[in-house]
Each structure stands twice: as structure tokens, then as C-alpha cells.
Amino acid sequence: MNWPDIINKLESRDSNIRNATAIELMDYGGEMAFECLVTALRKSDNRKRDGTLVYALTAFDCSTIFPLLFELSMSGYENAQHAVDIMAEQKMCLSEEDLNAAQQLLDDYRINDPDEGGFKTELIGALEDILARLTAGK
């Protein structure tokens, strides 16, 4: 696989190219494919247009990127669905610092972001359940 070309496609403004590349990486698998997706998701230019990138992560072990998944879960409906599914279904590796940061992020979200037709209330409940499960596992 031509990794520089893949990275360029993930940075494309054309959502068709970006989404097809994300699915290609999902099917390809492997550590490099995972790292390409995570790098693309960390770029602020991709925010609000990264649902397929988050979806593609469902094929990978995401235990090491809990903070990113938690943050992405609050960046739109599609991201929330995929990120919450990943966090609920996979074993997460996280520190006490990660848990505290996630709780702070959730508290800020609860206060500062408007509820979109009841979606926010449902999402907060799901995230609270995930944090409770992870805290109990510590």
C-alpha cells in the first residue's frame, strides 16, 4: 500500500475520496492503517466531516485511543454512534488521568452544548454508563 498516497487521500477536501480511503483502510487492517485513521481524526480540519473515519475504527483495537474516542463522541450524531459503540464493546486501556479528563469533558458538554432533540441527554447517559463501567474496572 502506498502510505503517503493514502495519507493525502485522507486529507482530501472531497468527502468521497476521504470516505472511500477510510473504508479501504478498514478492510486492509493492520497497525499502519489504524495509525493513518487516528492521525486523520486528530486533525482539526477533519472535524464535522469525519464520521466515516470514526466508523472505520470499528474494525480495529481502539483500546489505546480512549481520550480521542470520548472527545469524538461529542462532535456530532454519527461520531457519537460509532465512538460510543467502540467504547462500549472494546476493552479500554486508560489511566486515572484519562478518566478524570473524560469526566471533565462530559461535565463541560453537559453545561455548554445545546441539546439537539434529546440526543444530548441520550448521549450523556451512554457516556456516564461507559465511565461507570471503566471506573468499576479500575
Looking at this protein, list some descriptive labels.
138 residues; mainly alpha
Q: Mean of the pLDDT scores?
A: 91
Largest sheet data? none
Percent of residues in helices: 55-70%
Order of helices and strands: HHHHHHHH
Kindly name the structural category.
mainly alpha
Output the number of helix runs. 8
Radius of gyration computed on alpha carbons: 15 Å
Number of strands: 0
* Overall morphology: globular
The poorly predicted ranges are: none
Classify the beta-strand content into a percent band: under 5%
Taking the alpha carbons of the first and last residues, their distance comes to 39 Å
Detailed description of the structure:
The protein has eight helices and no strands. The protein has about 140 residues and is mostly helical. Helix 1 (about 5-10) packs parallel to helix 3 (about 30-40), helix 2 (about 15-30) packs antiparallel against helix 3 and helix 5 runs parallel beside helix 7. The radius of gyration is 15 Å and the shape is globular.
Record the SSE blueprint.
Layout: H1 3-10, H2 15-28, H3 31-42, H4 51-56, H5 66-72, H6 77-89, H7 96-112, H8 119-136
Helix pairs in contact: 1-3, 2-3, 5-6, 5-7, 6-8, 7-8
How is this structure best summarized?
With about 140 residues, the protein is mainly α.
